[in-house]
């Protein structure tokens, strides 16, 4: 395993930046071990709901974790709003960094992650090779 720390800047798209970091590293498999920071926009898909909900405002990233492949990422995140309410779910595209995001990626040399349709779940699920 190879560690890759990242710092994202205001205006960066969180999900796109994580996928781009894996591509730039030349690896084909990785995990986000943890992430903290802040967002101005979060896109979270809650359990059993087909589309993400957009949250706007001053949001703190409390946790961020998941797998990354050249096919995309499967990330889960919890955020809190300015009143301390906590929400979490599947991270969608369009999460915009407010001040900073600090992440630790684990790159997995010799591994390849892909996403393939799984008839049992109906979703594109992780395949490890």
UniProtKB/TrEMBL annotation:
PROSITE patterns: PPC (PS51742). Pfam families: PCC. Residues 1-129 form the PPC domain. This is PPC domain-containing protein.
